[in-house]
Write a structure and sequence with these properties.
By secondary structure, this protein is mainly alpha-helical. It has one domain. It contains 5 helices and 3 strands; from the N terminus they run E-H-H-E-H-E-H-H. The protein has a 3-stranded mixed beta sheet, covered by helices on one side. The chain is globular. The structure holds iron/sulfur cluster. Iron/sulfur cluster (SF4) binds next to helix 1 and helix 5.
């Protein structure tokens, strides 16, 4: 199976610890995090994705806002510059340990976070990155810190 993600969710998945807009949103996201951790690949899509799905019935349809599309453009450009590989709609990405470590390092130093500007979750995500991504739910085998 393949997980469909819009570009800025390539960043958001790095710091997902089980918090989100609504209970339905969070429960769905937890299932997606488990699928990604189990090795399902990612298809980058334009517009609402598998993470957005529970929000599409909401009155405010935040996922269709122009500002969110702008976040996607900034995220795909940043990830493409980092990885020297396609990260826009249509790209396929395998979330392996090497990919995740490079993404985490760049997220932690802020070099791929232009898309995070004016995001209400930014302080939380900054703190999670500063903690060494403690408690995140997208964690492929081999990424876990060594046990004592
Ligand atoms: S600050 Fe917002 S856009 Fe950036 S990773 Fe966190 S939730 Fe996603």
């Amino acid at each position: 199976m393949t997980v469909r993600l819009r570009p800025h969710h390539l960043l958001c998945m790095l710091t997902f610890v089980g918090k989100g807009y609504t209970e339905a949103f969070t429960e769905n996201y937890i299932r997606i995090a488990a699928r990604l951790s189990a090795g399902e690949d990612i298809l980058v899509v334009e517009g609402p994705d598998d993470i957005c799905a529970p929000m599409l019935g909401e009155a405010d349809m935040y996922c269709l806002n122009e500002s969110v599309a702008d976040r996607d453009i900034k995220a795909s450009k940043a990830v493409e510059a980092l990885l020297a590989a396609a990260a826009g709609p249509g790209a396929s990405i395998w979330l392996n340990v090497t990919f995740l470590q490079r993404m985490r390092a760049a997220f932690g130093d802020g070099s791929i976070r232009e898309a995070c500007q004016r995001c209400e979750w930014s302080p939380l995500c900054t703190g999670i990155a500063a903690s060494g991504f403690d408690g995140v739910l997208v964690e492929p085998r081999g990424c876990q810190p060594a046990q004592g």
